[in-house]
Amino acid sequence: MCVEGCSSGTGWKQRPWCLWGCFVGRADVYLQPGAADPVLSPATVLALARRHVSAAAAVTGVDESGGEARAYLVDDDVVVKTQRPHRLRPRTSLAKEAYLLDMLETGLGARVPRLFGYDKVDTPEGVVEYLCMSRMRGLPARAAEISDAARPVLLTGLGRLLRTLHATRADDGVVPRDTDAAALARRLEFGFGDLADALSQRRNAWTAPVPADEVARRALAALPDTLAGPPVVLHSNPSPTHVFVDPDTGQLIGLIDFGDAYASHPALDLHRWPSPADRVMIRDGYLDGGPVGGDFDRMWTIAMIVTDLAVIAAGSPYAPQATVDLTGRLDDL
């Protein structure tokens, strides 16, 4: 597991915004880790794109930065996305992403990719499941220089976008959900277990006055026995990797990659940035949308503690701020 700003992989400067993705934890397994991972030929990619965009002319690039999916860039404005077979996980689904993009178009418009089509078809290179959609303008926030003046506008705007997302109704058969407080507790128990594993590999990273296992115990004990409202559709990782901005102004353009979406407590979508101050601004924008459930503040505090732990475990440059934030939030439980 790693967080935005981790020091794993090729180094922080090369991979500055990697959230939760450096290893597969207790709740996730790769179903076929030994599967071949071929890159499709340009001819096959164009044939898939032209089923939905007849004017598609050329494959202009291949993006594997997400690790688990491969995005074939067609012309300047089309993406053909496929699942990398050896990184297939139970909760990741191109069909689910297609469903959500279609559902979100009314409420979010150009803030999310436009769905052109989804299918699973026979090709000269075998059966290919794919998603064809528009390419989001701008750059991922992780790759952009965002000024101090633009940052609050960006992050409160993201909070408002997530509030709109969470108001979207989705079919239970397509989007998995935490149906009750017990399911939510299981999810967080897995998460804290993964963080304990990560911290065990960086024993010198922990400087907080309370032991990490005590932090996890107190956070889990503070979970509500019942939830104040029904689960809402979550993006699951609206981090600087998936949030796109105008590189010149830092203004929010949109959000990509809904393949890991699920439904649960709304606070679990508001804590995926490494800086505690950034997370607070996202929350402020979210709360602009009106009242929230009675358990929101408690769940928000627990979610902040989860990310603070992850930031520390990853050796992130934000670890000192996360340590201070975590220590203060324990008093709020």
Give an overview in words:
The chain is of the alpha+beta class and 333 residues long. The chain has 2 domains: 42-88 and 91-134, Phosphorylase Kinase, domain 1 (2-Layer Sandwich), CATH 3.30.200.20; 139-330, Aminoglycoside 3'-phosphotransferase, Chain: A, domain 2 (Alpha-Beta Complex). The protein has 8 helices and 10 strands. The protein has helices at 42-50, 94-108, 150-166, 181-200, 212-221, 276-287, 296-313, 319-330, and strands at residues 59-63, 69-74, 78-83, 115-123, 126-134, 139-140, 232-234, 243-245, 252-255, 262-264. The strands form 3 sheets. A 5-stranded antiparallel sheet has the order 1-2-3-5-4. Strand 4 and strand 5 form a beta hairpin. It is globular and about 60 Å long. The two termini are 25 Å apart. Mean pLDDT is 90; it is low at 5-23.
